[in-house]
Amino acid sequence: MTEVVTDAELMKRVANRDRAALEAIYDRYERIVYGFARKSGADGFAAEEIVQDVFTKVWNAAGSYDEHQAKFSTWLLTIARRTAIDHARKRQRVAPPSAAEETLQAVPDGAGGPEEVAEVRALQQMLRAALSELPVDQKWLIERIYLQGLTQREVAELLGLPMGTVKSRLRLGLTKLRDKLAGTGWEVTP
């Protein structure tokens, strides 16, 4: 029977520069940190950078971890939170358009007359406004699934969430979106 080594024991070994101990910590917590980074709004590439930065910080600050002050997971997620905030600040300096913005700009106007162009733009603005009023987790799901084409399973794996949770949040978001767009000419079917 294999003995389970606690996080605190592994961190003592990491503080002594034991790479195998860091690998064990990484294996235990990489998915959690990645999911946390994605929930904070980072795309896949940025979330991977956050994970790398977090575990580099764990390696460098291992000696400062005190199991009597906090659970390891709390200490780790505090580092992850600060790292995600730092990455978000960097991204804001060079803020690219959101996925929804890029997709909405790409909606063809059908080369119609000025009235049709104005109508399409008005509908785009209504959709943007309605999406911006949704809770972040629901907006993120709708953008990824309906505007970027990810599957519910892909989103569940990215976030480390059960499929049922993704489906529930998506359905709730679509219901709210439908209510916000009622009477505008847009139909949303949850």
Characterization of this structure:
By secondary structure, the chain is an all-alpha fold. It has two domains: 7-93, Rna Polymerase Sigma Factor, Chain: A; 99-181, Arc Repressor Mutant, subunit A, CATH 1.10.10.10. The chain has helices at residues 7-15, 19-39, 44-61, 72-93, 99-105, 114-132, 136-147, 152-159, 163-181. The longest helix is centred in the middle third of the chain and has 22 residues, at 72-93. The model is unreliable at 107-111 (pLDDT under 50).
List the SSEs and their pairings:
Blueprint: H1 7-15, H2 19-39, H3 44-61, H4 72-93, H5 99-105, H6 114-132, H7 136-147, H8 152-159, H9 163-181
Which terms summarize this structure?
single chain, 190 residues, mainly alpha, Rna Polymerase Sigma Factor, Chain: A, Arc Repressor Mutant, subunit A, 2 domains
Major β-sheet profile:
none
The CATH class designation of the largest domain is: Mainly Alpha
- Span of the ends, CA to CA: 49 Å
CATH topology of the largest domain: Rna Polymerase Sigma Factor, Chain: A
Shape: elongated
The value of Rg in angstroms is 21 Å
Helix-strand pattern:
HHHHHHHHH
Query: CATH-wise, what's the superfamily of the largest domain?
Result: RNA polymerase sigma factor, region 2, helix turn helix motif
Label the CATH architecture of the largest domain.
Orthogonal Bundle
Provide the domain count: 2
Please give the share of residues in helix. Answer: over 70%
Strand percentage = under 5%
User: What's the total number of strands?
Assistant: 0
Q: State mean pLDDT (0 to 100 scale).
A: 80
Low-confidence stretches: 107-111
Quickly count the helices. Answer: 9
Structural class, from helix and strand content? mainly alpha
